[in-house]
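Illustration: Putative pre-16S rRNA nuclease.
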Amino acid sequence: MSTPASDEAPADRPDPATDPGRGRRIAVDVGSVRIGVASCDPDGVLATPVETVPRAKSSRQGGPPADIARIAEIVREYEAVEVIVGLPRTLRGENGTAAGIARKFAKQLRRVIDPIPVRLSDERLTTVSAARALRESGVRARGQRQMIDQAAAVSILQGWLDERSSMVKDAADTAVGDDA
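Result:
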């Protein structure tokens, strides 16, 4: 079952008003079985895979679920300034079950890593694209699952970084134009 995208907050986009500036970013591709994780360099140029985290079946006693705890640990290890969670929408822009899972995950993660911002980024077809690219590069199907999750996270993050770079450039061009 899916709901129109207007029923939920829209996916985020890089915004000069909320951009935390220079620093590493972490992206996660939340699946029902695994979570792909990617990071970027401090200048926000290139996204690279980090690891695949198994989904937790339930909450740990007295703390967040193990998957949330591991992502929070990665955020601390990488000294991330922002986390981007892929929001899987249908091709018609609707929120299905997977989008609900991603939103719930983002909400739980936000509570654990506050004040580091957690953003939702539209990630339609990233997993499909990642699987196709790996298959075309000769990676065997058996070894693909964890790599697909990481490659999807890389795709989510690289899209965010590219859009952010364009946004920062546009803001700088506007500032230069204002000074003229």
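Reading the tokens back as a structure: Confidence is low (pLDDT under 50) at residues 1-7.
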